[in-house]
Amino acid sequence: MTNCGNRRRAQIGALVALAFFAFVIGAMPAAAQGVVTRDPAEPAKGKPQPKIMARPAGAIARSSIDEKSMRALIGKLVACGTRLTLSSWTDEKRGIGCGRDAVVARLNEIAKDSGGKLQVVVDKFESTSERTSGKPIALENVYAILPRSDPKLAKTIFIVSGHFDSRPTNVMDPEADAPGADDDGSGVAVSVECARLLSKARPKGGASPYRATILFAVISGEEQGLLGSTHLVDWVKQQGYTVGGMLDDDIVGADPAAGAPHRVRLFSGNGEIDDADSPSRELARAIEEIDGRRAIRMIFRVDRYGRGGDHYPFYKAGLPAVRFTEPLEDYNHQHQTPRTENEIEYGDFEKYLNFTFMGDVARDNAEALRQLALAPEPPSKAKLTGAVTTDAKVWWSAEDDAERAGFEILWRETTDPRWQVYDFAAAPGETVLKGVSTDNHFFAVRAVGKNGARSIAVPTEIERRPPPLPSPTKQ
What parts of the chain have a pLDDT lower than 70? Predict the structure, then answer.
């Protein structure tokens, strides 16, 4: 009976294992199961196989990141005690003015090393919100501008930003300490380090390679209601710039989980567009493609749940804007007045930062900015036609550009997050995708420079034709 019982238990165990295995396999995607898809091929005779141009040479090396200077700048910001927007702008040792001075001093050093290419601007303005008690208050943003003389793209601007104000638990208390090492000393350090890296970059011969202008922003008033970034949207328009992309770095300095460094999260909203994507979503895709999936984790929502950052005013204005944020936030170390309660330490201190991770974020921002600023202007007025036919027709326009190699026509399944290259076209106009349904994929076009740099993608618009509906019944 003992041997029989053992065999019986073994048989039951084997059946349970097989059932579990079948359950797991059934839950796996079809591709992982090795299942052959049973959809018709599009196009039936195989898609074109365009030659994919290499990305621009001269990628920024991780070893070129100056973590020591990033640490030093954050240390100076923390030493200001508080940088609440409502604190003093004139006290040299405590308050937001102390933080401004630290940023301006560091940017002036970088501008000097750049040979005068980098222009440092202190932008003074007033703003009002519920968190200013409804009263206008004085604010200041700091910009370092790397202008370009390309007549086509000199007024296209790419922005990287961090905010230098901080806050304690009570966002209206200018007296409480608010070290703000991570929120957002880390973003300030990333923006300033990008200024150092990109203002020194030059190809053989010494001329700057960038076609577009780059602005390295350090913004105030974020914690009081995105005041500085809202003002920056207006300032950019007043200067006559077109925003090519805005990269906001906010809380990008800590990565305490085991196995660090991890990927940085990149938030992007979808906007109000049907059957397509917002400029912000296309910017996120471009950044992930430049930096790689091992570095970037795309999050398809405008920001963390119930929260906001300085990219938001740009996003709401219909401009391409995204937010970088660390992988797993520790809420004991942000928006907290320093204290110890129940043996738990609260406060946003430098000791909780991970400079290896922060250096990775700086490198990823700088390389994305470099390639985007090297790229041609995106195409315009991309359209998709061919409804109720067997061929999709993609049409787009673009101004002449001697530095452009052509255009990549992109497509993806409607459920896929990333574009694939379908074909390459040397000139704007219409390209017919023979045997490709207009219904089963999304389509886009992007410009490619002779240097291999790509613009962000421009999704095709479609003609909106709602189905016929019954006429209202007359009463």
Answer: 1-35, 201-208, 273-275, 475
